[in-house]
């Protein structure tokens, strides 16, 4: 009995046999990715002089380190359009050897900066004439105010318009274009600033005469101005909601639940339509020739922009609504 118990005890105290652990399977070597290299030649657009030759360029685009990207323009042909920022070598109609024509666009400014400069100037200049600062009119009129209610109303409307544009630039617009040449700010600001000073000089002049049809004409112009300002803001909000932040995907704008956007059924650029209506209302309200001239020039310029946008829509979208005009329903 003692011998059996001792054997049982030895058996119970023995360690269990360890199972052999399976060896890990060797990982298969990854297949080497095929890398395609390009040979890129950069040629000056004007002189046709070879600027540099880049060897073993990968699929992503290339930039000249001497200029920051915004001021560089690259083309496949001297008469072709500039290549877009999102285009890469793989998608371009070139072989493994490509020649690009380079041009320096000059110093650049963001579009937002230019928009703000365009709006702040007219706002400040108009108020200078409204308060009749010295050296504008005769000294006896310095810091005096007009006796006509329409003059004060015009100042409120003009200031509201440009304050609205400043706030829209800061908080509403999603500007798809990155920059514009620095020289453009002088042209753009010169136009808006001089026009504002010209119309402000006559509207706030001590000898200004009120509209021929009196208060009824002023009220009509005011109602048109307010209606179109609300419509213009509604269109800008609708266009903002059409674009996702940081996205460059373009979509067809359609009317929303906001009645002011229903004009999208008839025109491609209703923001310009409402902008034109606002200045027509301001012209009727003030009965001022410089305002009428500014409205006419603005209409011509906005028509050019609207026609270009309309052609772009027709080119990009095959299902674009055929009923739409550029800026004026059924007319233009």
From TrEMBL:
Membrane spanning stretches: 109-131, 220-239, 280-305
GO cellular component, one term: endoplasmic reticulum
An example molecular function term from Gene Ontology annotations: oxidoreductase activity, acting on the CH-CH group of donors
Pfam families, per database record: Steroid_dh, TECR_N
Chain intervals for the UniProt region annotation (Disordered): 1-31
UniProtKB keywords: Endoplasmic reticulum, Membrane, Oxidoreductase, Transmembrane, Transmembrane helix
Biased composition (Basic residues): 21-31
InterPro entries assigned: 3-oxo-5_a-steroid_4-DH_C, SRD5A/TECR, TECR-like_N
Biased amino acid composition, Basic and acidic residues: 7-20
Protein name, per record: Trans-2,3-enoyl-CoA reductase
Record organism: Nothobranchius furzeri (Turquoise killifish)
Native organism taxonomy: Eukaryota, Metazoa, Chordata, Craniata, Vertebrata
Gene name of this polypeptide: TECR
């Amino acid at each position: 009995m003692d011998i059996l118990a001792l054997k049982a005890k030895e058996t119970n105290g023995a360690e269990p046999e360890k199972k052999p652990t399976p060896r890990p399977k060797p990982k298969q070597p990854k297949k080497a990715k095929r890398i395609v290299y390009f040979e890129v030649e950069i040629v000056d657009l004007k002189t046709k002089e070879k600027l540099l030759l880049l060897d073993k360029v990968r699929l992503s685009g290339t930039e000249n380190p001497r200029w920051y990207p915004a001021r560089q323009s690259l083309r496949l042909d001297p008469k072709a359009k500039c290549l877009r920022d999102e285009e890469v070598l793989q998608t371009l109609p070139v072989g493994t050897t490509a020649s690009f024509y380079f041009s320096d666009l000059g110093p650049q400014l963001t579009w937002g900066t230019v928009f703000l400069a365009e709006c702040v100037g007219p706002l400040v200049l108009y108020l200078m004439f409204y308060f009749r600062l010295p050296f504008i009119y005769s000294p006896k009129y310095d810091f005096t105010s007009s006796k006509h209610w329409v003059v004060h109303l015009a100042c409120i409307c003009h200031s509201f318009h440009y304050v609205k544009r400043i706030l829209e630039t800061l908080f509403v617009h999603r500007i798809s274009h990155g920059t514009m040449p620095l020289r453009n700010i002088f042209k753009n600001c010169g136009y808006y600033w001089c026009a504002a000073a010209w119309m402000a000089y006559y509207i706030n002049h001590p000898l200004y005469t009120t509209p021929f049809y009196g208060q009824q004409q002023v009220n009509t112009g005011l109602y048109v101005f307010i209606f179109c300002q609300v419509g213009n803001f509604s269109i800008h909000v609708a266009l903002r909601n059409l674009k996702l932040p940081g996205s460059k995907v373009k979509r067809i704008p359609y009317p929303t639940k906001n009645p002011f956007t229903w004009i999208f059924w008839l025109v491609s650029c209703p923001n310009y339509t409402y902008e034109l209506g606002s200045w027509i209302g301001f012209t009727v309200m003030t009965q001022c020739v410089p305002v009428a001239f500014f409205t006419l020039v603005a209409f011509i310029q906005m028509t050019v922009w609207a026609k270009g946008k309309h052609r772009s829509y027709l080119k990009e979208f095959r299902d674009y609504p055929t009923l739409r005009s550029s800026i004026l329903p059924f007319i233009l």
